[in-house]
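REQUEST FORM: STRUCTURE PREDICTION
Request ID: SP-0412
Submitted by: Lab K.M.
Chain count: 1
Length (residues): 269
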Amino acid sequence: MINYLFSDLDGTLLDATGRVSQNTINTIQDSHLPLTLVSARAPIEMLPALTALNLMGPQIAFNSGLIFQYQDDQIISLRSHPLTASRTREILGFVQTHFPQVSLSCYTQDNWYTERIDGGTHAEQALTGQTAQLTTYAELFNSSEITFYKIMIMSLDTALLRQLVAALVQLGDTDISIKLSGSHYLEITSRDAQKSTGVQFIKDYYHLKTAETAAFGDGENDLPMLHAVGTAVVMGNAAPAIKDHGDWVTTSNTEDGVAYAIQYYLRGE
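STATUS: Completed
RESULT:
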């Protein structure tokens, strides 16, 4: 029996407008199953979904770079795996030099920074409702109090993103994780920021058996999470290679695929 749910956000729990549909909200609440969101997003970008679903338990941001609870309008860190400042500086500089055409930005726990407002940042602002702070990376590195969790790279050129992945791998940095999220996003976090490690934290936290857990995802960065649970549900909008990793393939995120899976696969209605 499934007693705990994990879900990715973009392309999974969220519809095309970046929101959780009312049908999905109702289905999750009616299931009485606890849910942890497992996202590459920053906590501030997860808050609308947390509020809509009234989720009070531990949540997973930055692909497990930060596990937190949102209480009394505060983000309470439960576990943290940030990038080092030196590695963040190296990668930002490398991308700016060798792939200047991509949209480049970085995240701390509470803020999103970029040196250039472009099509990528405009699209992300529209999707998440957050506003990127325009600054220079050099200025950020002058502050010893800045802690970086994610570097985000966006491009409509998927072949270019694949080239960038290969170039980053050639750098040989073993302390980072490089993950494609969807077709147009490349996200770099700490090596320890894998969705599977966040899932394991929650399983230990609540003394859950793997067989009791199910997860929903659609992207390459969801594979560690899907492999860490008892029942893996892949969205209908996922690429064929991702669908191969699912115990079930549900309808798309624009067709309330999470709700459909809860009703017909996990609860057998």
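NOTES: The radius of gyration is 18 Å.
Reviewed by: T.R.
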